[in-house]
Amino acid sequence: MRAAGTILAIAPARFGPKSQPMPLHITVPEQPSEADRNAVFAPLLAYNIAQAGDPNIRPVSILLTDEQGERVGGIWGKCSYDWMFVEFLAIAPEHRGGGHGQALMAEAERIARGHGCVGIWLDTYAFQARGFYEKLGFAVFGTLDDHPVGQQRFFLSKRL
User: Fold this and answer.
1) DSSP strands (E only) in 23-118
2) Rounded to the nearest 10 degrees, how much is the dihedral formed by the CA atoms of 139, 141, 142, 143?
3) Range of the structural domain that residue 62 is part of
4) Co-location of 69 and 42 in the same domain
5) Residues 80 and 131 in one domain
6) 87 and 107 both lie in a single domain
7) CA 25, 30, 34, 37: dihedral to nearest 10 degrees?
8) Which of 5, 49, 74, 110 sits a CA distance of 20 to 30 A from 81?
9) In total, how many domains does the chain have?
10) Is residue 100 a contact partner of residue 106, using CB atoms and an 8 Å limit?
11) CA dist list (Å): 6 to 25, 32, 63, 115, 144
């Protein structure tokens, strides 16, 4: 296994009979930065736009706050290509069981509809909240076994 931060030389790429070789190297940063992410994301986004149009990516944050205004949980996600993706839903343990998760998801649905989304998708682990999402009308569309080993990760969606 190569250590992080090392460089691996790969064969030069050739593009057509008159093109000169382009030396490329694989680099693995020890601490990946936002600039590193953008170096990967920018060409992918450009390709996606050329193929399917502007994804109109919009971040979504729905916060759950206590009486003092302290954030105790919420939803973090994004809308793009007519779907909302819920990346995180979390509530501090002392505030669970009060219907807050259901209220947060209802707000996510309202926001998704307002952005013209046709559905919401998310993922959850076997030890998390699959049943919660299924009670809200979500259905499993994919399963990843052994993530983590001995567990499963579920991908769920709901059409609005």
Assistant:
1) 25-27, 58-65, 71-80, 83-91
2) 20
3) 58-159
4) no
5) yes
6) yes
7) 40
8) 74
9) 2
10) no
11) 10, 13, 40, 43, 30
- For the chain, what is the largest distance between any 2 Cα atoms, rounded to a whole number of angstroms? 69
Q: Please report, for residues 34, 36, 42, 82, the alpha-carbon distance to residue 46 in angstroms, rounded to integers and kept in the order given.
A: 18, 16, 6, 18
List per-residue pLDDT tens for the chain, 160 residues long.
555 565 555 555 555 556 677 899 999 999 999 999 999 999 999 999 999 999 999 999 999 999 999 999 999 999 999 999 999 999 999 999 999 999 999 999 999 999 999 999 999 999 999 999 999 999 999 999 999 999 999 999 999 9
**Which among 40, 45, 138 has a CA at the least distance from the CA of 89?**
138
- Structural domain includes residue 1: no
95 and 26 share a domain? Answer: no
> Is 41 a member of any domain?
yes
Residue identified by tokens 């809308």 is: 79
**pTM as predicted:** 0.83
